[in-house]
Amino acid sequence: MLSLFVYLGILLALPIVFVGYRKIEFALRVSRSKSYGDCTVQKPILIGVLQRWVKKQPLDVSFYHQLFLRHGRTFTTHPFMKPLVMTAHPENVKTILATKHGQFDIGHIREDLGQVYMRKGIFTTQASDWHSSRAFVRPAFNKMNYMGLEYLERHFQRLLQNIPADGLAFDLQPLLFAYTLNTISEMLFGVCVEDLGYDDADMQKFHEAEKCMRVKGLRAVHLSTLSNTAARLYRSSELIKSAKVFHQFVADMVSKSVERYQFLEKGARYSLLHDSMERTGDVQRARDEATNLLFAGRDTGAVLMSNVFFTLSRRPDLWTKLRAEVSQLNGNLPSYEDLKNMRYLNNIIKEANRLFPVVPFNYREALVDTTIPMGGGPNGTTPLFVAKGTYVMYCTYAMHRDTSVYGANALDFNPDRWDDPQLRPGWAYVPFNGGPRTCIGQNMAQTEMSYTIVRMLQNFDGIRSEDSAPFKPSTNFVMANVNGAKMSLYRKKLEL
Ligand code: HEM
User: Fold this and answer.
1) Binding-site residue ranges
2) Which positions are annotated as binding heme (predicted)?
């Protein structure tokens, strides 16, 4: 009986201790912020979150966009009594990613949990560990950018075989996921997944594991902005199981790749793993970095291409104009030079990266007491104090739809806007991030996307959408359309 009272007492005391702790933390923060901007103006977001929850609407990025429209480009919110700075202001983004890069980084939770689920590497480290990772993979990337286009064509031919007959409805999105898994596994390990003899059940297991890591991993990162302790306690058994499947898969690819390496002539075929092994002899490290790269680079390109084709299938005007540009190649395979010079194609990719940024929002944690240039004071126009340990969420999706940068038609998909010399978005356009942690795979992704889009247009005369639903962003690390990219395609008629 007595112990029941003790338990009840502890249960009642815990919230009081928590609130007291947060109040003291808040008072200390305010006293430290005196010489800087105001950090006490709070905008409530929990009500909006609850409303969405009650209405069974997803808490996707469109919700954050609405918050910026209501509260301005930078505001502080206070869910669970811990401040969270939310910004869609280019000056702030420039500050946290570049000017004050040493004062903001990915955060301790992404570092800790990321290493549990994804191992230690470029995507899950900060400070000196991150410098070392970036230096470790950089030379391999420089070489990979010039590994030629032949491997892309091989994988593209496989993709083509999986596209059904003319006029039959299908979803291009999963085919693109399979395609980019093949291309990236070949780049990283020198062997592509499709050649390793996994059956459909194995592949299904891998895809599910990866999806779970993305969805639940994002939940852990969300939680960390509210409470580091809650995020650390968030150890979903499903997440741990999924990470195990993912690592087993990578370990298997690595061992097959290492086996192959012994029989390869020096410089015969390129892969990041072989290159790093040759340079450093450290297979373990190369495996861990490759795991990070597989996670960072696999879905991103597939999602962007899927969003491009989702749009093309609904916009015959874009399809026709792009076909006219592609037809100038006279059916020849595109070279690097051709891809670089195709202005309309590049505008389409830029516009897709703007309206459907693959990474629609992100976080950085303040590593010291510091400030960002905008968001303080009653009007949000003076520097804002950001206490050590506070997360700043920056929303690329909202920035890319800002009418003050992109004009009144900011929500329209209009590739021609990129021909306007007046349009100079600077830090209001950051699909690949910016500053020292900018996407290291940008060039590679650009080549793969442009090559694949050109080859699709060289092979198909017509495209039709088979889905009338609007774009619905997924709540995942990457922003795919929840309903995929359902369409039918019509093959090029052979000229007799
Ligand atoms: C359309 C394609 C892609 C987009 C839009 C994209 C976007 C991004 C963004 C926004 C980040 C910053 C993430 C953060 O700091 O939290 C990032 C980082 C990164 N990306 Fe990409 N990415 C793409 C393709 C790729 C590819 C193909 C690879 C590699 C094979 C890759 C490798 C990486 C790596 C390693 C990082 C971490 C860099 C660092 O922290 O130093 N990405 N990417």
Assistant:
1) 439
2) 439
| Burial environment of residue 229 by CB neighbours within 10 A (0 to 12, 13 to 18, 19 or more) | exposed
The alpha carbon of 148 and the centre of ligand 1 are apart by a number of angstroms equal to 21
Ligand 1 close to Cβ of residue 445 (< 6 A)? yes
Mean per-residue pLDDT for 291-307?
Answer: 92
Ligand 1 centre from 47 Cα, in Å?
A: 33
Dist. CA 347–CA 192, nearest whole Å: 31
Ligand 1 pocket member 122 (CB < 6 A): yes
What is the C-alpha to C-alpha distance for residues 107 and 78, in angstroms, rounded to an integer? 18
Residue 169 has which token pair?
């409805």
CA 263 / ligand 1 centre spacing (Å): 32
Going by C-alpha positions, the residue among 58, 35, 33, 40 that lies closest to residue 380 is 40
Q: What DSSP string runs through 155-202?
A: HHHHHHHTS-STT--EEHHHHHHHHHHHHHHHHHHSS-GGGGT--HHH
Q: Whose CA is nearest to atom 16 of ligand 1?
A: 362
Closest protein CA for atom 10 of ligand 1: 432
Q: Please name the CATH architecture into which domain 35-491 falls.
A: Orthogonal Bundle (1.10)
Q: Which atom of ligand 1 is nearest to the CA of 357?
A: 5
Span from the CA of 297 to the centroid of ligand 1 (angstroms): 6
Which of 300, 362, 392 for mutating ligand 1's site (highest number of atoms within 8 Å of CB)?
Answer: 300
- In the three-class reduction of DSSP (H, G, I as helix; E, B as strand; rest coil), residue 386 is classed as strand
The whole-number pLDDT of residue 266 equals 61
Q: Is the pTM of this model over 0.85?
A: yes
Identify the residue with better confidence: 380 or 469. Answer: 469
Output the known binding site for heme. 439
The 10s digit of each residue's pLDDT in 76-115 is 887 766 788 999 999 999 999 999 999 999 988 888 888 8
Mutate which of 185, 305, 439 to test ligand 1's pocket (most atoms within 8 Å of Cβ)?
439
Return the structure tokens found at 103.
Answer: 């004062």
- Choose among 492, 171, 463: nearest CA to 320: 463
Calculate the dihedral angle through the C-alpha atoms of 105, 107, 111, 114, rounding to the nearest 10 degrees.
-110
pLDDT at 312: 98
User: Cβ distance 334 to 454 under 8 Å?
Assistant: yes
Parse the chain into domains and list their residue ranges: 35-491
